[in-house]
Specification:
By secondary structure, the chain is of the alpha+beta class. 29% of the residues lie in helices and 31% in strands. It contains six helices and 17 strands.
Length: 275
């Protein structure tokens, strides 16, 4: 494995059967490099969204708490990968290629079952469908919480509070929105380094080793549209073909109907196991 480090960076390695911190310039061939990840913390309250909306033709506002269930986590993944807020129309929107019917239907179902919100499909370009959800409460929450001060998307919640099922669902939304499921790997790619780091940590949380690669800006076709990149593109890719086969099936098949069962799954000895 090839690594690149900034100057004066310390890394955690196993050498001669012992874990230790060393300067990156001291690394030797044969060292095992460890990467820390957050263990699950079940001691805190469940994360969620508080949506504030005004009743039509009234000055009265209502507050509604939406628990961050696995399905809601998957919606957040879709949004971080391929969603946006539309300030002109006051809505939250998601873009998918026309052939991604399963993803479109999944977002529609999550919005209806978890937020009690219907959504509208509109054409967007030649090969893309835009799904819009008109909710002032959702618009305000997504606009205020899923972007940083420089308007880059970010994940605002504590990752250690997520269960295994939450992690799988969030990763599924990211990969379905802006990734690929190949024969030998599951990948997520983006120019946003925060999201790349998020995906890398999610792979680690479910017990799958993943590598990170960088590629210079280029022209690519995304969902039928030619996009000229201005920033380097990062890719997080899972390793181990045996694990990937199981993970691929989970990510491809997860829906509102079966997402609650992902909590029973775990990775062990390069296998995806179920209780």
């Amino acid at each position: 494995v090839s690594y690149k480090f900034v100057e004066n960076h310390e890394i955690y390695v196993m050498r001669n059967g012992q874990w230790q911190w060393i300067g990156s310039e001291e690394a030797e061939i044969g060292d095992i490099v460890g990467e820390a990840f957050e263990p699950e913390d079940r001691n805190g309250t469940q994360q969620g969204m508080t949506l504030c909306e005004r009743i039509t033709c009234s000055d009265t506002y209502t507050k509604k708490r939406i628990e961050a269930s696995p399905d809601v986590q998957r919606l957040v993944g879709y949004f971080l990968a391929d969603g946006s807020v539309n300030e002109c129309e006051g809505c939250v929107q998601f873009d998918f290629a026309n052939h991604e019917e399963e993803n479109l239907s999944d977002v529609e179902e999550i919005l209806l079952k978890n937020f009690n919100k219907k959504s509208t499909r509109t054409p967007h370009g030649e090969n893309c469908t835009r799904l819009k959800c008109y909710s002032k409460g959702m618009f305000n929450y997504f606009n205020n919480n899923f972007y940083d001060s420089e308007r880059n998307k970010h994940y605002p919640w504590d990752l250690s509070r997520l269960s295994r099922g939450d992690c799988i669902s969030l990763l599924a939304g990211l990969v379905r929105g802006d990734g690929a499921i190949g024969e030998n790997a599951v990948s997520f790619y983006n120019s946003n380094t925060h999201l790349i780091h998020l995906a890398h940590r999610l792979f680690a949380r479910i017990g799958v080793a993943a590598s990170v690669h960088i590629r210079d800006p280029r022209e690519i076709v995304i969902k039928g549209r030619l996009v000229k990149q201005t920033k380097p593109e990062w890719t997080v890719t899972s390793g181990s073909k045996t694990t990937t086969v199981a993970l691929k099936q989970i990510i491809e098949e997860i829906t509102c109907e079966n997402s609650r069962f992902t909590e029973r799954l775990f990775i062990s000895e390069n296998f995806c196991c179920g209780r």
